[in-house]
Amino acid sequence: MDLDFLLIGAQKCATTWIYHCLNEHPELYVGGGKNETYYFGGKTFDQKGLDWFEGLFSDASTYQKLGSASVDYIWDVASIELARKQYPDIKIIAALRNPVERTISAFFWLMRKNIIEDGSLEDGIRKAIDDYKSGSDTIYSELIRRSLYTDAIIELHENFEKDNIRLILFDDIQNTPKTVLHGIYSFLGVSPGYMPSSLKRKPKGNSYSSTLVYLERKMPVNKFATKVLNGISELIKISSKTKSPQLNSGLTQELSDIYKGPFGRLYNWLEENGSNDNMAIKKAKKSWNL
Q1: pTM assigned to the model
Q2: Domain count along the chain
Q3: Where is the Sulfotransferase domain (predicted)?
């Protein structure tokens, strides 16, 4: 088989929305779903091998282009390089988001999933900053580390043909989803005019509803409960009954100071090396104030 593309993340950057829009296209097939552990070169791959991985695509039609999706790809660039050696013409899709906003969104997601304690945004981000600066390897410091995807993006551009990498901005997905999707479909060489039902979905995220956080922490972990809660979250987001929380200015500045250097290097590197994503990067540089 020939693997045509990887959707690599980053986490809380609308990767799930992109996945659904890709998987609905009749000319595309994403093997294994969007499963963090089912990726080429990951631990499950190491245990089960190439035949297992390619078996994830056994139901695909011969005319469909094949892809794999996991937000853990972006933290395992060696696996992406391994995939390129196996499938030389593979293309890469990555979604990027303002790192401060991504960190806040991830905090609420972890709280909803009962992975961290139910507490205030300020207390959680304070702990994340302190743990990160002390070098502690905790779930809180990971909130910050997962926003530092800059080196991975540079490494991708150093090892792949520029025309085989497409960077997507979370802001553009929110504001002009149809245009974004048209560009992704064109990038993959399939019919760009297809309109999936997921186009109308809000990018998966957080309603920031205290009621939803409470329900999700109390309900059992199973597919039915997840489907119900995701539906409630979608309705809340569509009705705009809750707004994104505002982190106090002091903590916002501390986070920005952490991200400013790495993101400055990313902007400069991509601009100096003639990336075909210059416009997206320039837009991010201006709007993110980093």
Answers
A1: 0.86
A2: 1
A3: 4-191
